[in-house]
Amino acid sequence: MQVIVRVPAKINIVLRVGPLRSDGFHGLASLFHAVSLFDEVQARPATGGVTLELTGGYTAGVPLDHSNLAVRAAHMLAEAAGVSADVRLKVRKDIPVAAGLAGGSADAAGTLLACNQLWSLSWPRSALAELAASLGSDVPFALLGGTAVGTGRGEQLQPLDVPGELHWVLAVADGQLSTPTVFRRLDALRQVGAVPEAPVVDPAAVAAVAAGDAAALAPLLANDMQEAAMDLYPALTETLDVGRRAGALGGIVSGSGPTCVFLARDAERARAIAETLSQLDGCTAAVPVAGPAAPTQLPA
Ligand code: C5P
């Protein structure tokens, strides 16, 4: 018996960040969108605890112990469900690490889904979502996938029906950024008084996404963390320039970066933009993707 689940990477089509709260998080409003670049979590029965093996293109520096979000997710679910935490996890990491794509959150969400099945818990997704929120702000969205407006620290989600497909290019940078570091830089760079008390996602962006209207959406892409990410990672300026000149309708830093994400008119244009970006120094990969995508269980 084994369970295999694949979980998509996320981008933030819109990310508005409010002030630092007393709990150490920032209130935010985000238009989350899951795209077709996946990590795959395989869960097999085991005795003697939780073990983790990593495969795939992005494993360097990723811990295998309790500091890995997937390991924490397995322990947390076992404890909450009153079963013993025994599972052999194998995660294929194709989502770049510390890249603003919520790869670690995808692994945690995949682990919750796979262990829920492996341990025959039959927890509804709403119950898993509560655990997900305590694992990390992006884990509830990773569990859900698709497109959603997120508020709170990102964990309160309003799913959005998107019937069509949007085409994007992910420009993967030759380095990493730590999310808390980018939030701290943002706080340092921001002028007092310029911080929105109650950030909101522009309803026009929501409408453009719901209509699958890439041309209308392009000028509405927005990321309040972009300036801080670029301050920490100046090479992103050139990446954004090159992607836009290659024919992207728009481009922004994804989440806390350093991945840049470009919106393309169609799949063919996305492939061409990716081809140009892949020749850029400092861009280790340029991946055409489509959204929305969702977590799915694969045949074992
Ligand atoms: O929720 P998560 O564990 O992914 O967050 C990592 C860190 O990022 C937090 O400890 C906090 O410093 C920062 N963060 C934030 N506001 C958010 C989400 C994350 O300041 N809404």
User: Alpha-carbon distance between the termini?
Assistant: 8 Å
State the helicity in percent bands.
Answer: 25-40%
Task: Estimate the mean pLDDT confidence.
Answer: 97
Q: Write out the distinct hetero groups bound to the structure.
A: cytidine-5'-monophosphate
Total DSSP E strands: 12
What overall form do the CA principal axes indicate?
Answer: globular
* Count, helices: 10
Structural class: alpha+beta
Strand content: 25-35%
Round the Cα radius of gyration to an integer and report it: 19 Å
Structure, described:
With 300 residues, the protein is α+β, with helices and mostly antiparallel strands. Helix content is 32%, strand content 30%. Strands 1, 2, 3, 4, 5, 6, 8 and 12 form an 8-stranded mixed sheet that branches. Strands 9-10-7-11 form a 4-stranded antiparallel sheet. Strand 5 and strand 6 form a beta hairpin. The longest helix has 16 residues. The protein is globular. The structure holds cytidine-5'-monophosphate. The site of cytidine-5'-monophosphate (C5P) has 12 residues, from strand 2 and helix 5.
